[in-house]
Design goal:
Blueprint lengths: L2 E2 L2 H13 L3 E8 L2 E8 L4 E8 L4 E3 L9 H11 L2 E3 L15 E2 L6 E2 L18 E5 L11 E7 L2 E8 L7 H5 L4 H8 L7 H16 L5 H29 L3 H22 L8 E2 L2 E2 L5 H27 L1 H7 L7 H6 L4 H5 L8 H5 L18 H24 L16 E8 L4 E8 L5 E7 L2 H11 L8 H8 L3 H4 L2
Parallel strand pairs: 1-4, 5-6
Antiparallel strand pairs: 2-3, 3-4, 7-8, 9-10, 10-11, 12-13, 14-15, 15-16
Length: about 475
Amino acid sequence: MADFVDAAGWERLAQDLVAGRRSLVDLWGDAGSVRMAVLDADRGRIEIAALACPDGKFPSLGRHHAPAIRLERAIGELYGLEPLGAPDDRSWLDHGRWPVRQPLGAPRPHDATGGAYRFLPVEGESLHQIPVGPVHAGIIEPGHFRFTCSGETVVRLEERLDYVHKGIEGLMRGAPIDTAARLAGRTSGDSTVAYAIAFARAVEAALGVRVPERAVWLRAVMAELERIANHLGDIGAVCNDAAFALMHAHCGVLRERVLRAAAAAFGHRLMMDRVVPGGVAGDLDAAGEAGLRALAGATGREFAPLVSLFEDTSTLQDRTVGTGILTAELARRFAAGGYVGRASGRDFDARKIPGYPPYDTLSFAIPSLPEGDVNARIWIRIREVEQSLALLAQLFDRLPSGATRTLLEPNTVGEGFALVEGFRGDVFCWVRVNADGRIEHCRLRDPSWFQWPLLEAVIEGNIVADFPLCNKSFNCSYSGHDL
């Protein structure tokens, strides 16, 4: 349950964020209030504070703490709650195409007469702008990037996202738990396991459900397979953008093998809908386990020469070393998770802090580097693949037997939350279940909410041609942001 605070308490939390005593986990609207989740890393716990907004207004966090700015803009558009003193009052999610305004608050007819989005003005001599997107050459989701340049050097990048807003929070309202679980797993398809685990753990916390031990360990098997597959894809994709297609091809083969093994073991290449509140939807039989063991061994053997190939290719190093540097201070301030944060010295991992089973009984390292460039973000992925392969060996050696699912008790009321480590970083979920056993409100937060703004920062001072490298090295989720 959230602790309600007054305006002064809200401001004290803001000052804690500025001072680094806490990290912002999420900020969202609720019925007549705003809620803030913060992490106290020293104590290893997440705290949720709520502030009532009887007049539809609340003190802006964004005027103190930049990571809250986009979240506040989203709250205003979804709930009609106004952040007082906010440094940016432009629309963010709403492109003027919604049938109503503030759809999750008090909906009212949409007045789509605001005109074009107000990008920041160009100021200075010899500057020009390059608009890219929202439609791109590849089969990817839409996003607009507005570059302000001096010659080839990027002076400023401004993003415009949410072209494919799905309205997941609205769809969750009143949905049965099993329907909501399917929605959660489709927030960002490449992280379907991480989202499904986060949603399931939040529901289980709300309802006081104890999950069978075998199910907990099978969830971890799926999470590590998802992590390996995505990291392999990213490593190859970054190398491809540096014109080293050979690495891309080899990584693509390894990734495809992981997906096929997952399909054979769990019935779906991405393992979608395999994690459910109460446990998992199916068991892992002996053949499936044997196949995954063989996969892990073969991947480890074939991945090692690729790592050497990457390390020994000087043309790759020329493109990646020193490119797109994210400072340690920005990584800390934005609580950047995953490989983005770890490549800049922030060695945070939700599997460790606040931690959750079975990782609290497993041995693994959190790779971290100080350089903060594209090269460092690739190396973090490489080390994480190695760690995940080692984790799979531990999971298989200690996989318990027994049941794989506990049925949920109907007509139980409660609130719960969870923080789960996905391949991009920490995925947050908060949920409230009503007396009918349905979802009253569910909030999901992708790590990309805090990573997209940092992409704007790292490209400054680099040339336009290096943006694909920087962008791929971040690989932020459009879908996870466009909730």
